[in-house]
């Protein structure tokens, strides 16, 4: 599997940002609806202090990445770009490895720039978790 470069990773991340923004909006709408149902009018989106909003979004991103990589080996954005996260054995990462990769990815996002100097285009989170993000040969062959 050939390693994915910075442009492919960033394009996939943009798709994932859109998915996460939609999920975040949906969560706000549902929580506002629950509040409206329990307390009555007026309907309002929940308001959180800045730190709570930041922490909840950080947790949402880590859960999204961990679940995606554990269940399918890719996020929706990586699916669109034909990318897959695999271990040295070519299998999707397990839950612990995916969680480690997600935590490093979210806590140290500039680590993706390591792909520019890495011979095998691995980012810092790939090195720490023992994974590779590459082009899925099955998807590339089907697109031809």
From TrEMBL:
Domain of life according to the entry: Bacteria
Signal peptide: none
Record localization: Cell membrane
Keywords of the record: Cell membrane, Membrane, Transmembrane, Transmembrane helix
This protein's record includes keyword Membrane: yes
Segments forming domain RDD: 4-130
InterPro entries listed in its UniProt record: Pra-immunoreactive, RDD
Main location: membrane
Topology with respect to the bilayer: Multi-pass membrane protein
GO CC annotation, single: plasma membrane
Sequence intervals crossing the membrane: 12-36, 48-67, 98-117
Coiled-coil regions, chain positions: none
Name of the protein described by the UniProt record: RDD family protein
The organism of origin for this protein: Jiangella anatolica
């Amino acid at each position: 599997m050939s390693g994915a470069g910075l442009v492919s990773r960033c394009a996939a991340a943009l798709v994932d940002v859109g998915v996460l923004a939609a999920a975040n909006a949906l969560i706000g709408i549902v929580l506002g609806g629950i509040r409206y149902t329990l307390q009555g009018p007026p309907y309002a989106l929940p308001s959180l202090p800045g730190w709570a909003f930041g922490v909840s979004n950080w947790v949402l991103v880590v859960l999204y990445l961990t679940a995606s990589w554990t269940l399918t080996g890719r996020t929706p954005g990586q699916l669109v770009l034909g990318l897959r996260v695999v271990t040295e054995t070519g299998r999707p990462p397990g839950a612990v490895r995916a969680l480690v990769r997600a935590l490093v990815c979210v806590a140290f996002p500039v680590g993706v720039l390591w792909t520019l100097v890495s011979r095998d285009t691995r980012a810092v989170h790939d090195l720490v978790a023992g994974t590779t993000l590459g082009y899925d040969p099955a998807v590339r062959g089907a697109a031809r």
